[in-house]
Amino acid sequence: MNIIAWVVLGLLAGAIAKAIYPGTQGGGILATMILGIIGAFIGGSLYTFFSTGALVLTAPGLSIPGVIVAVLGAMVAIFLWGLITRSSNV
User: Among 43, 30, 33, which residue's Cα sits nearest to residue 71?
Assistant: First the structure.
């Protein structure tokens, strides 16, 4: 899959994941796109791992199931980003 399709899939997955994910997330369109691309890789890699048993860094294709996998991966990426950037008020 070429880089343009990754950017489109990442933008779409990141926007959908931010709309679904509860709470407020910081960042603009660039952060959404980056988290979406990272999420597409997370989702695609986990899907490949669970379906074939091989751990390979892949991104899903630009299709309906690919978008669903990318959105789920982007939600994981948003969750992990929230854990990393959360400030403790101790």
Answer: 43
pLDDT-based confidence at residue 26 (cuts at 50, 70, 90): low
Tokens of residue 9, six digits:
């899939």
* 36, 13 contact by CB (below 8 A): yes
Enter the tokens of residue 64: 């309906």
Cβ neighbors of 11 (< 8 A, separation 6 or more) are 29, 32, 33, 36
| Domain ranges for the chain | 3-85
pTM of this prediction exceeds 0.90: no
Average pLDDT for 1-23: 78
